[in-house]
């Protein structure tokens, strides 16, 4: 199931693998002083979508740019379960990859802290293909402290509010665009005996999406930006407490049903509630469409609707802001054996040829001109909605479990789960998060 690789995040073992034993080996490689000359190695998450990167590298290796820079690239497809360990081991050795696949944010923080990656700001600014080739919000979403360390290389995956159009029509409802409308929709669905929201609470990351969007809509993206940069005190922002209070009201009012903690997303349980009309809405990443198409094809093609997360009345966050997985990135090792060739390859990720390959694979490219290519998508309507949503977004916040530093990931998800389960109050929730070290 492809969405599982897209939702991958570092748990306790992953965090340990990522942070343990990293060393900034300043010598011991065979690069020249200017980082030019010689072949390159690239690590990629080895799912089905890796064939897009494989084909791109094959094209590059026979291109004039490869000949000019004297650099060809060897791609290593690494099974997902082995990826963090393999990458950590390689980055701590003399044979670090020149380029590697990642999620930006917290997934690369340990490497940035050890000065093992190239800050791409100046390279992007001085390279028109890179500066003008991608949606600005996507570049910044993978950044740390405002500095980009990655170039987009896969499709975008925003989190959307999906709904059952048949259920809504039967109950005279419209897709909510404000929090008050969402609460009213919640009330009417419960009165009709329908669970308002599907939630796969057995998989904690599904609960995170509610916190992410509410904090954004109430306080704006700056609140989490401080948290992402390591400021634990920022968990005490009033927007975090207000978000927790709104979630408690929803849970206590039965918005997610009584047994949501035993419902799984990974086995299709939450998606089935929406498709079968047992739930009216479902907050989930854009991969929900492909999940529904695979499991409930007729529903996906006829009755599956989607809308942006509603605005919060009186909140500071723009309804155009998006949270989710902006994309995956190529990052460039500071010890690359051929910087010129690596940059030449990165430029190809902004090309129309590369974007077309993503579209044909059902992905939504993050390139600035991809909108014109989406008629070739398996579902042009859904593809264009996502692309325009991200294109217009003032901010695209990376999923928190991928954005925060690794040692915060598991305890953060645990505290969110305790909030949903009623095991901690909103104030206790904030206090626990402020205590993260």
From TrEMBL:
Under the heading InterPro entries, the entry gives:
Bact_solute-bd_prot1, SBP
Superkingdom of the organism of origin: Bacteria
- PROSITE patterns assigned: PROKAR_LIPOPROTEIN
Pfam families from the entry?
SBP_bac_1
TM spans (from-to): none
Spell out the coiled coil positions from the record.
none
What name has this protein been given in UniProt? Extracellular solute-binding protein
